[in-house]
């Protein structure tokens, strides 16, 4: 204690001397230091260890001028500040390999520890998580914030990410002892110890997920997040952040990304259902409505997927779902009431749009899917009333596509919920209110496709394709609905009015193609009515006995009815024709203008054309859809080539198409193999 007191007292003396440094010469200063060495050797040793510049005063400086003295001051002043801080830290980092730069050898060592069969140690997990955080800092370009580790080079970065994605979830599960029990992580003994590092790791994963645009890397990260979703549900704030990002990917990503995002949403929500379900249902429904505003052949699959996945989410808890479904159906009904009461374009547009129709489709699918449970069945009647009054709002020819969409929803709802809905009047009304004998002003090469439109333009109404499409849709929907009701004990009574109106249409219509189709349908309906009459004449129970009627209808349905058998055969053929239209859409566009004759070429012209054919342009590509060479051929060239030559060339190119298919498949496999190893800095 005495020595420690003396040191500060004596330290004031040299500092006093340093303050009056301008008055002392180097020789005098040196003498005073020698005197200090004799008087207090301990304090002199202290200065010698901590500040050698003070004791070597004047040796390295110039003897003359005030410039040397100023340099000496500069050398001395930062001495006490720098002595024990920065330089010693860097020396320690170089000395210890576990702290500082991460290399591949270190990553392989951590990876072996994560894969070890013995117990997983907490320091290993925290070290790996810190290395992952260092990799994220490198991605963000944040060099100012310094952690324990520093990741440099793309190979090291890829190795760290791969290690965490592949081996960290299993190691955490093993550390918590969840391999066999599968219990809640929060109930595990060691969860408190790993809670902090786990939270920081999940935050880094979400940052990485937000900054990635590559589909392959998103797929890998979403699979990893699905494994970690059990731990995500342990932190409410991280759960909400991750759900927000996942809902965005669920609604806007590619097909695989959408599916994986939904699986993550489902797992996180189920692990924390009471706290998150209401928020998730509301957010997902609003996102569905927002992204179903525009419908096209390219957006249909995504909208259908969102609708089906929403049905799954609402089915998790039907009691909680009832509150949401009731509220949203009520909103649809209010919009419809305003459109009926206030006859303005704005109010009609609030109903006659894709968002409204897709919402009706969603709630109909949900009620149909849960028809075996009683919670949502009270909402069936109000939903049917909203749909039927939507059809009646503007019952003009322009809105026939919207009518057909609503009828499809009602047919599916009636079939799945086993409930009778009077749909036939909405279909037969089309036959009786529109004059199909009217001559068309324009000729269209093929019928109009009503699948992605709600309203027709006036120019489309004057095309012959409009009438063809209307008859096709009425025929298909009438057949489907009557086939679904063909086992009903009251089928002859249900279909009587429709049969009478079809007969009236056959009398007035002069177009043979239309009358032929509708006559065939009418005959099948009458045949089924006679079949039900014969079976009904054999019953011995009262018609007000619901149980016996239900059992009789089930027996007739199991046996099969003539109309349903015809519908099944027609449906198979119709599906094949639809597939052909989709697959050969480009071919039909090429083969239609085959009326043009090829030009007769001279010998010289043929030679020049043959030389041209050897280039990247193929004049006779194979008809295989997978052959990528088809995309290189222009329509004009295909139009001028005779069909026979095309068939001959097709045989020759069979082997080429096979090899091209194999090469494409090999390239796809090579691209998709081991996506984690293909990480590069440019992808982030």
UniProtKB/TrEMBL annotation:
<feature type="compositionally biased region" description="Acidic residues">
    <location>
        <begin position="59"/>
        <end position="72"/>
    </location>
</feature>
<dbReference type="GO" id="GO:0005730">
    <property type="term" value="C:nucleolus"/>
</dbReference>
<dbReference type="GO" id="GO:0030691">
    <property type="term" value="C:Noc2p-Noc3p complex"/>
</dbReference>
<dbReference type="GO" id="GO:0000122">
    <property type="term" value="P:negative regulation of transcription by RNA polymerase II"/>
</dbReference>
<feature type="compositionally biased region" description="Basic and acidic residues">
    <location>
        <begin position="73"/>
        <end position="85"/>
    </location>
</feature>
<dbReference type="GO" id="GO:0042393">
    <property type="term" value="F:histone binding"/>
</dbReference>
<feature type="region of interest" description="Disordered">
    <location>
        <begin position="601"/>
        <end position="672"/>
    </location>
</feature>
<feature type="compositionally biased region" description="Basic and acidic residues">
    <location>
        <begin position="601"/>
        <end position="615"/>
    </location>
</feature>
<dbReference type="GO" id="GO:0003714">
    <property type="term" value="F:transcription corepressor activity"/>
</dbReference>
<dbReference type="InterPro" id="IPR016024">
    <property type="entry name" value="ARM-type_fold"/>
</dbReference>
<feature type="compositionally biased region" description="Basic residues">
    <location>
        <begin position="643"/>
        <end position="658"/>
    </location>
</feature>
<feature type="region of interest" description="Disordered">
    <location>
        <begin position="1"/>
        <end position="34"/>
    </location>
</feature>
<dbReference type="InterPro" id="IPR005343">
    <property type="entry name" value="Noc2"/>
</dbReference>
<feature type="compositionally biased region" description="Acidic residues">
    <location>
        <begin position="14"/>
        <end position="25"/>
    </location>
</feature>
<dbReference type="GO" id="GO:0042273">
    <property type="term" value="P:ribosomal large subunit biogenesis"/>
</dbReference>
<comment type="similarity">
    <text>Belongs to the NOC2 family.</text>
</comment>
<dbReference type="GO" id="GO:0030690">
    <property type="term" value="C:Noc1p-Noc2p complex"/>
</dbReference>
<dbReference type="Pfam" id="PF03715">
    <property type="entry name" value="Noc2"/>
</dbReference>
<feature type="compositionally biased region" description="Basic and acidic residues">
    <location>
        <begin position="633"/>
        <end position="642"/>
    </location>
</feature>
<feature type="region of interest" description="Disordered">
    <location>
        <begin position="50"/>
        <end position="95"/>
    </location>
</feature>
<protein>
    <submittedName>
        <fullName>Nucleolar complex protein 2-like</fullName>
    </submittedName>
</protein>
<keyword id="KW-0539">Nucleus</keyword>
<dbReference type="GO" id="GO:0005654">
    <property type="term" value="C:nucleoplasm"/>
</dbReference>
């Amino acid at each position: 204690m005495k020595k420690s007191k003396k040191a500060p007292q004596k330290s004031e003396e040299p500092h006093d001397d340093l303050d009056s440094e301008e008055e002392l010469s180097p020789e005098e200063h040196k003498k005073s230091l020698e005197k200090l060495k004799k008087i207090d050797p301990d304090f002199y040793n202290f200065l010698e260890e901590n500040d050698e510049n003070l004791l070597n005063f004047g040796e390295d400086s110039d003897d003359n001028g005030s410039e040397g003295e100023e340099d000496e001051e500069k050398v001395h002043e930062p001495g006490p500040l720098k002595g024990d801080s920065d330089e010693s830290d860097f020396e320690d980092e170089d000395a210890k390999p576990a702290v500082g730069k991460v290399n591949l050898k270190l990553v392989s060592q951590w990876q072996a520890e994560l894969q070890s069969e013995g117990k997983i140690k907490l320091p290993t997990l925290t070290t790996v998580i810190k290395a992952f955080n260092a990799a994220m800092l490198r991605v963000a370009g944040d060099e100012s914030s310094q952690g324990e580790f520093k990741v440099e080079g793309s190979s090291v970065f890829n190795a760290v990410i791969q290690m965490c994605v592949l081996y960290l979830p299993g190691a955490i599960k093993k550390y918590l002892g969840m391999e066999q029990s599968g219990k809640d992580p929060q109930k595990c003994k060691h969860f408190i110890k790993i809670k902090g590092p786990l939270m920081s790791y999940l935050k880094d994963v979400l940052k990485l997920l937000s900054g990635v645009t590559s589909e392959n890397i998103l797929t890998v990260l979403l699979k990893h997040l699905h494994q970690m979703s059990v731990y995500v549900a342990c932190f409410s704030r991280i759960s909400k952040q991750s759900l927000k990002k996942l809902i965005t990917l669920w609604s806007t990503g590619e097909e695989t990304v959408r599916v994986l995002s939904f699986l993550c949403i489902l797992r996180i929500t189920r692990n924390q259902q009471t706290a998150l379900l209401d928020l998730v249902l509301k957010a997902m429904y609003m996102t569905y409505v927002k992204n179903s505003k525009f419908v096209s052949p390219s957006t249909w699959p995504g909208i259908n997927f969102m609708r089906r996945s929403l049905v799954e989410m609402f089915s998790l808890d039907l009691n909680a779902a009832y509150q949401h479904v009731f509220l949203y159906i009520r909103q649809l009904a209010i919009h419809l009431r305003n459109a009926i009461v206030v006859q303005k374009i704005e109010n009609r547009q609030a109903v006659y749009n894709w968002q409204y129709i897709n919402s009706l489709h969603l709630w109909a699918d949900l009620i149909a899917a849960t028809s075996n449970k009683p919670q949502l069945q009270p909402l069936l009647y109000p939903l049917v009333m909203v749909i039927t009054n939507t059809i009646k709002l503007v019952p003009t020819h322009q809105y026939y596509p919207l009518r057909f969409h609503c009828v499809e929803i009602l047919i599916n709802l009636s079939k799945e919920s086993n409930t009778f809905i009077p749909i036939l009047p909405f279909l037969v009304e089309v036959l009786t209110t529109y004059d199909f004998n009217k001559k068309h002003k324009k000729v269209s090469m093929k019928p109009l496709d009503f699948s992605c439109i709600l309203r027709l333009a006036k120019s489309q109404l004057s095309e012959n394709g409009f009438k063809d499409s209307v008859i096709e849709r009425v025929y298909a929907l009438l057949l489907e609905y009557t086939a679904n009701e063909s086992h009903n004990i009251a089928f002859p009574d249900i279909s009587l009015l429709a049969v009478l109106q079809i007969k009236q249409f056959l009398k007035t219509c002069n177009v043979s193609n239309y009358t032929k189709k509708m006559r065939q349908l009418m005959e099948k309906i009458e045949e089924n009515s006679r079949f039900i009459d014969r079976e009904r004449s054999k019953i011995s129970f009262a018609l007000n006995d619901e149980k016996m009627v239900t059992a009789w209808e089930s027996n007739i349905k199991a046996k099969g009815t003539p109309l349903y058998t015809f519908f099944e055969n027609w449906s198979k053929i119709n599906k094949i024709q639809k597939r052909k239209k989709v697959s050969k859409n480009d071919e039909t566009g090429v083969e239609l203008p085959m009326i043009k004759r090829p030009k007769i070429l001279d010998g010289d012209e043929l030679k020049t054309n043959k030389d041209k054919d050897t280039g990247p342009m193929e004049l006779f590509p194979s008809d295989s859809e997978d052959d990528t060479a088809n995309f290189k051929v222009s329509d004009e060239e295909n139009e001028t080539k005779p069909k026979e030559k095309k068939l001959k060339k097709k045989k020759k190119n069979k082997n080429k198409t096979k090899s091209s298919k194999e090469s494409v498949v090999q390239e796809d496999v090579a691209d998709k193999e081991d996506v984690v190893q293909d990480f590069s800095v440019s992808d982030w």
